[in-house]
């Protein structure tokens, strides 16, 4: 790296090392406050008063990070990784680790690139008027995300179904919605709702169903260390929630 970046990297490293730790039992003492403007019923949310406002984001929410932000924050993220390596008992100056902080910083920015994108940008030119009212399903969409509690991977498959109300969405855009929301720090329950709500707000369909089956490395690599465990979450909106036959048809088709 050039001399100016090196100097900035060293300054950021000192700041990271001296910063106070605000974590409690491995979790940072602070929560992101995300306003839910959808007004939609969320199936099986199990939310108590005061929690529902942070459950979902509207598809119209502005992106929270730009490419310029990435460039500006890269030195401080790399400095933080240097401090982590030193805290683990490693020597960040040894040959194999010299570029690791920068590699890890750019990788983390890629893993969370969903913060740079807006759903509305993806969907604006892909919503079509179509006289079709039968179920549309895209299943086995690969999903990679990051657990917001431990910053380790979540990976699995997403199944999406909806009943059009004279409007359909380009099929690849369903996968793009999954990509945008999954490439953020997540919990699986919230991710499932965000996908369903985004489709509902975009198309106003008769109903939407989303099912996610995922493996959490925080369960596989640490804690209970259960190698074959999977977590399944679902969100059903509209007729997918109200009509058992519609819901059963969707669940049968994604399992076939």
From TrEMBL:
Which stretches of sequence are listed as region Disordered? 1-71
Per UniProt, the keywords (alphabetical) are:
Allosteric enzyme, Cytoplasm, GTP-binding, Hydrolase, Metal-binding, Nucleotide-binding, Nucleus, Tetrahydrobiopterin biosynthesis, Zinc
Q: Which SUPFAM superfamilies match?
A: Tetrahydrobiopterin biosynthesis enzymes-like (SSF55620)
Q: Where is the composition biased (Basic and acidic residues)?
A: 58-68
Q: Which Gene3D superfamilies match?
A: 1.10.286.10, 3.30.1130.10
Keyword Cell membrane present in the record's keywords: the answer is: no
Question: Which is an annotated GO molecular function term of this record?
Answer: GTP binding
In terms of PANTHER family, this protein maps to: GTP CYCLOHYDROLASE 1 (PTHR11109:SF11), GTP CYCLOHYDROLASE I (PTHR11109)
Q: What is this protein called?
A: GTP cyclohydrolase 1
Name the gene for this chain.
gch1
